[in-house]
Amino acid sequence: MLRVNSDRLRKSLEEMGQIGYGGPGKGVSRLALSDEDKRARDLFVSWLKEAGLEVIVDPIGDIFGLREGSIDAPPVMAGSHLDTVREGGAFDGALGVLGALEAIRTLNDYGIRTRKPVAVACFTDEEGARFQPCMLGSGVVAGLMTLQEAYAKKDDAGISVEAELERIGYKGNKWLKPVAYFELHVEQGPVLDAKGISIGVVEGIQGIAWWQGKYQGEANHTGTTPLDMRRDALLGAAELVCSVRRLAEEMGHDTRTTVGRLHPYPDIINVVPGQASFTIDLRQYDEALYEDGKKRAEALVAQAASNHRLEYELEMVGDAKPVHFDPAMVNLVEEMAREAAFSYMRLPSGAGHDAQYMHSICPTAMIFVPSIGGRSHCPQELTDFDDAAKGATVLANAMLRLAGS
Ligand code: HGY
Ligand code: MN
Ligand code: MN
Prior knowledge:
Elements: H1 6-17, H2 35-50, E1 54-57, E2 63-67, E3 76-81, H3 94-110, E4 118-123, H4 136-141, H5 147-152, H6 161-168, E5 180-186, H7 191-195, E6 199-205, E7 207-216, E8 220-221, H8 233-251, E9 256-258, E10 262-265, E11 271-272, E12 275-284, H9 287-307, E13 311-320, E14 323-324, H10 327-339, E15 344-349, H11 354-358, E16 364-369, H12 385-403
Parallel strand pairs: 3-4, 3-5, 5-16, 6-15
Antiparallel strand pairs: 1-2, 2-4, 6-14, 6-16, 7-12, 7-13, 8-11, 9-12, 10-12
The chain binds (2S)-amino(hydroxy)ethanoic acid (HGY) and manganese (II) ion (MN) (2 copies).
């Protein structure tokens, strides 16, 4: 079994975690294609070159480090993302990218030439925090979205993906498709940590449905407008927040729904809100329940509008179907964890990942390591570095097994 260099992995994670770090309690902010994301990308590229890899940047800004094999063939790939949510953690995404880099650095240490090439990947805008949908880069690679559609996505300030790729110098020109894909990631949930288990053998990922919407009512004076004359957009949205939560409770089967963004307008203390913009995030692992949940969520938006005499706009901005990974790949991850004598268990992923889209173009599997307290997407996100190294060990050996030597 290959053993990775846990100190080197830790140092890389700590150095990368300084980029976008906001200070105590502020976490890491590296929104996609921001200056912080560029600095992270530049550091990553410098490490790829140090490791002797060919650096490839594709037209949607995904970055790959390619290590030649003894034959010319599509590579066995592993990776994740370096962009984060606002005030997120230092492990979400970064562990998958730097764990894959550590696997390649370890192959270099052992002087192993794999038969098939191997590659490390850093996908653009996995989070979807600045530009929706999430998994934008891997979505284009997987053909689930055209390059032009992705280029046209705009952030809250109306800046496009294409303009930002050009601005930070990561609008590349070469695609790289793998023969197989692994992703090492922190679980971001409570299961492994609660059970004291080091390795998650991930069997699949739940579906992710995202909407952006806006209620249109009537701004008016809060002192002079009687209740029965109001068309209060924020009141309608507030009803939606509660009805969307009730939907998850009624659907059961671990359905999860969230209104993560809610902005009244004009957002003034003595004005009845004439507008209210909102988002909805729905998650469900079972295909039939997922499709049913989407229909029911959209009906709730209409219901709240009708109850408060509002017009509304609603756009679906993400629809990543539930996936169940290739059994042979999942078994390989499990076999590597067992051979390394790490504790492990099978589980689905609650969070979305680039693997969700890579699954549609090649055999794919994921490896989880515990998130302490199950926390993620917040400054408290933390993973034990020993567990991180265990995950990288499983990854390195799974890649070597598949690539051959
Ligand atoms: O939203 C997600 O599940 C992922 O973190 N982008
Ligand atoms: Mn992630
Ligand atoms: Mn994330």
